[in-house]
Design a protein that fits this description.
Elements: H1 38-51, E1 59-60, H2 61-73, H3 78-86, H4 92-101, E2 105-109, H5 115-119, E3 123-127, H6 129-159
Antiparallel strand pairs: 1-3, 2-3
Helix pairs in contact: 1-2, 1-6, 2-3
């Protein structure tokens, strides 16, 4: 049961949103950003976004964990990465399935070409165009904000101009 304390909660039986029949409504693609497992989802999405630069056919299931490991190793110690990947809270298959249900991923199977192919997992994953745009926008905005702040600070230092002083609060007058 979803508990909401405002009118934005679930509709009661027999009611509908008349706007939904005429205008776009709920979009679940950004749901991974606010999920309880947002950090895990973001890593998976970043790995798949990065893979789109070199592959037009998505990432095979067997390559997901090695790619996630490589991605995490760029920013975390190897011991931390090892611990995260064996953590019982990290379950890759349910995360991939949820991303697919939210419309973040497209999933398809490679054709089986041998008897061994029938026994292995042949799923391939690729971001949907909307998810790729959203994540690129989301990460670009934070990168641009950081770069803009650093550039502003650098320009002020180069120009010899000090940061402008903050306005002083007005004195309170007691009657």
């Amino acid at each position: 049961m979803i508990a909401m304390d405002d009118e934005d909660g679930p509709l009661e039986a027999g009611t509908s949103d008349s706007w939904a029949g005429h205008l776009p409504g709920q979009d679940l693609v950004p749901a991974y950003l606010v999920s309880r497992f947002a950090a895990q989802y973001r890593v998976i999405v970043e790995v798949l976004l990065s893979a789109q630069e070199t592959s037009l056919t998505g990432v095979p299931h067997a390559e997901m964990v090695p790619l996630i490991r490589a991605h995490l190793t760029r920013s975390l110690d190897a011991d931390v990465v090892d611990a995260l990947l064996v953590d019982p809270g990290f379950r890759l298959d349910p995360r991939l399935e949820r991303l697919h249900r939210w419309g973040v991923l497209t999933v398809w199977q490679e054709p089986a070409r041998s008897g061994e192919d029938f026994l292995r997992r042949r799923d391939r994953y690729q971001l949907t165009p909307a998810a790729a745009r959203l994540h690129a926008f989301w990460t670009q905005e934070t990168t641009l904000d950081d770069e803009a702040a650093a550039t502003s600070h650098w320009l002020l230092e180069r120009s010899g101009t000090a940061w402008p002083p903050l306005p002083q609060p007005c004195a309170t007058v007691t009657p």
